[in-house]
Design brief:
Structural class: alpha+beta
Protein name: 2'-phosphotransferase
Helix content: 25-40%
Family: Belongs to the KptA/TPT1 family.
Number of strands: 12
EC number: 2.7.1.160
CATH class of the largest domain: Alpha Beta
Order of helices and strands: HHEHHEEEEHEEEHEEEE
Largest sheet: 4 strands, antiparallel
Strand content: 15-25%
Distance between the termini: 28 Å
Number of helices: 6
GO molecular function: tRNA 2'-phosphotransferase activity
Keywords: NAD, Transferase
Oligomer: single chain
Length: 197
């Protein structure tokens, strides 16, 4: 049985919303603005959201423990977007971090099966716009999102060294640290330490 088959309707709804807002809007024919917002009316007309209402979206936004979404009302029209995690080319609100002391802990979570390649080649954006990091371990104060709680390996980044070499770091509205590295890669030389959970 697939994980989707085991998921509750609410979890399936949230996964579909996350996919559409971060990866699938264009493919699904849902117009997306350059800043990542889509019209709620356009979403609710789509077959994947059949039977859903504005209140359902508002509940997901309000109750998402990772604060993954942002909703706003512009001139009487409701809009929604994902805060980060896009593979679609969008210009989401990101705050560039200029002082490494602002982010004393920057950690990427991954799995044992990926470690050999990461150890050799570094962290890569893969299909996304940025490499994602948390500001600590899942569950610690201020850590809302940035890695899966099931991560088996934690890679801590030497931010002062990376910034000295020109790597840029950004903060999303839900406190995820993002970087596009050097040509989409943060090489292993910037790994301060690696921990296995």
């Amino acid at each position: 049985m697939s994980s989707r088959a085991r998921d509750s309707p609410e979890v399936q709804f949230s996964k579909t919303l996350s996919f559409i807002l971060r990866h699938g809007a264009v493919k699904e024919g849902i117009p997306m603005r350059s800043d990542g917002y889509v019209r709620v009316d356009d979403l609710l007309r789509h077959k994947k959201f059949s039977g859903k209402k504005l209140a359902d979206l508002q509940a997901i936004v309000a109750n998402n423990d990772k604060q993954r979404y942002l909703m706003t009302n512009e001139d009487g029209e409701w809009l929604i977007k994902a805060n980060q995690g896009h593979s679609l080319k969008v210009e989401v609100e990101l705050e560039q971090i200029l002082d490494p002391s602002e982010i004393p802990i920057v950690v990427h979570g991954t799995y044992n099966r990926f470690w050999d390649l990461i150890e050799q080649e570094g962290l890569k954006k893969m299909g996304r716009n940025h490499i994602h990091f948390a500001v600590g371990r899942p569950g610690e104060s201020g850590v809302i999102s940035g890695m899966r709680t099931t991560s088996q390996i934690l890679i801590y980044i030497n931010v002062p060294l990376a910034m000295t070499d020109g790597i840029k770091f950004y903060r999303s509205p839900n406190n995820v640290i993002l970087s596009d590295g050097i040509n989409g890669v943060i090489p292993p030389k910037y790994f301060e330490r690696v921990e296995r959970k």
